[in-house]
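Morning F.,

Quick status update on the modeling queue. The single chain you submitted on Monday has been processed. Sequence for confirmation:
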Amino acid sequence: MLLFFYKNFLIYVMIFVFLLLGVAIATLLDRKVMGSIQRRKGPNVAGIFGILQPIADGLKLFLKEIVFPTQSNVVIFFLAPVFTFFCSLLLWFVVPFNEGVVLTDIPFSMLYILAISSLSVYGILFSGWSSNSKYSFLGSLRSVAQMISYEVSMGFLIIVVVLMGDSFNIVDIVKSQNFVWFLFPLFPLWILFLIVALAETNRAPFDLPEAEAELVAGYNVEYSSIGFALLFLGEYANIIFMSSMLSLLFMGGWIPIMNLNHLSINDFGFFLFGMKVSFHVFIFCWVRASFPRYRYDQLMKLSWKVLMPISVVAVLSVGLCLVYGYVFFK
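Structure tokens below.
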């Protein structure tokens, strides 16, 4: 029993460390891609090609003083970023990195992901409310409304993938793509899921909660030191998680595009999964540097009048195809 506890604890620590490394690489990639698109160098002072810049930024944040705003709710103000980062960690418990490499293989892992992603809304709401600042509160309200609106479309898109994979388990969904990735028959839905992922992670062009010209910095404007660092880590951890979901649900996770039977997938499954996640993280960075910010009314109109009707039609269409046997690769 004690050995089992230590083994699980070691796995949790490894996930935490790899997530921190992934966030560091994602932040550096974000700044490098933006610099390249804007025809500048980006970070190039700290270390060779600026590879030590995330470490320098992290040390700077952790060495700063923790400042509590006047008349703020100190307890909730301190715990809200911790809760947000904790929710982003919980999501990784059901993510398979390779065949047989998953921390918790539960039958309804897709429902677990939807439930935990809904809980993260409370951390953002409490961080804005407890700051006792109008800019923070407006930013948190925008973020909550945006996340709840786009979660509806994300839920319908996940239902389509669940119908195709005939399971709520992520591992089974990945294995059902052994013949062909869902990206090919569901390519328009991959684009829709990418748009929803951008909105769920508050990334450009849907970064209304952090609009500098309107809200200074959004719900995290009053945070410094460890509080800001945790919110920042949670945001980029969610970006990497959404990239993982796109890779697992549409690109077969660790399965290659042509599954050659004479090769063992386990030998290079980690590498394939990492390459697919890196590709989607690059798309996140590319979109941020290329598209202007939407207005808030355009953001809501896109969610309720465009994405949700298309998602509902997709669910009905795939359901009818499965009932009447028109799916060509089944």
